[in-house]
């Protein structure tokens, strides 16, 4: 809340430690652009943020290596 008389200026969410805030799925050729964008985005959120690059295929439970090599 900012401004005079405590008027709300936006929307917030309570986030617990270890909770995923944002997930992005992209092509492999755009990986560095996405990492750079997330590094810049981290500063817009209070607290400590960590970028985790998953070994899964998209948002599935399957590993990338298993799907690429057929095993």
TrEMBL record:
<keyword id="KW-0687">Ribonucleoprotein</keyword>
<comment type="similarity">
    <text>Belongs to the universal ribosomal protein uL16 family.</text>
</comment>
<dbReference type="GO" id="GO:0015934">
    <property type="term" value="C:large ribosomal subunit"/>
</dbReference>
<dbReference type="GO" id="GO:0003735">
    <property type="term" value="F:structural constituent of ribosome"/>
</dbReference>
<dbReference type="InterPro" id="IPR016180">
    <property type="entry name" value="Ribosomal_uL16_dom"/>
</dbReference>
<dbReference type="InterPro" id="IPR047873">
    <property type="entry name" value="Ribosomal_uL16"/>
</dbReference>
<dbReference type="InterPro" id="IPR036920">
    <property type="entry name" value="Ribosomal_uL16_sf"/>
</dbReference>
<dbReference type="GO" id="GO:0006412">
    <property type="term" value="P:translation"/>
</dbReference>
<dbReference type="InterPro" id="IPR001197">
    <property type="entry name" value="Ribosomal_uL16_euk_arch"/>
</dbReference>
<dbReference type="Pfam" id="PF00252">
    <property type="entry name" value="Ribosomal_L16"/>
</dbReference>
<protein>
    <recommendedName>
        <fullName>60S ribosomal protein L10-like</fullName>
    </recommendedName>
</protein>
<keyword id="KW-0689">Ribosomal protein</keyword>
């Amino acid at each position: 809340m900012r401004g005079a008389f405590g008027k709300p200026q936006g929307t917030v969410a309570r986030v617990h430690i270890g909770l995923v805030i944002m997930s992005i799925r992209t092509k492999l050729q755009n990986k560095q652009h996405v990492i750079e964008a997330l590094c810049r985005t981290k500063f817009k959120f209070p607290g400590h943020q960590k970028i985790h690059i998953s070994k899964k295929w998209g948002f599935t439970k399957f590993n990338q290596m298993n799907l690429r090599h057929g095993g």
